[in-house]
Design a protein that fits this description.
With 64 residues, the chain is mainly alpha-helical. Helix content is 39%, strand content 6%. The protein folds into 2 domains: 29 residues; 34 residues, no CATH class. The protein contains 1 helix and 2 strands; from the N terminus they run αββ. The protein has a two-stranded antiparallel ribbon with strand order 1-2. The radius of gyration is 23 Å and the shape is elongated.
């Protein structure tokens, strides 16, 4: 195998992998955090329906 065909094959493989990664990244839906006024994500289906996961908390820096 000569160098040109090797470079074309490697470029093609990396390009295809990058395209697949981009398609998967675009198809991911965002999670609705803080949707119902909760400080986290509320489970909508399943046995844990209604539970709030991942509470968002910030530490106060008012140290006067």
């Amino acid at each position: 195998m000569d160098i040109k065909s090797h470079l074309l094959k490697s470029y093609s493989a990396t390009h295809d992998a990058e395209q697949k990664r981009k398609v998967l990244q675009k198809s991911v839906k965002a999670v609705a955090v803080n949707a119902n006024g909760t400080p986290g994500y509320m489970v909508k289906e399943g046995s844990n329906k209604g539970k709030i996961l991942g509470h968002l908390a910030t530490k106060s820096n008012n140290n006067f």
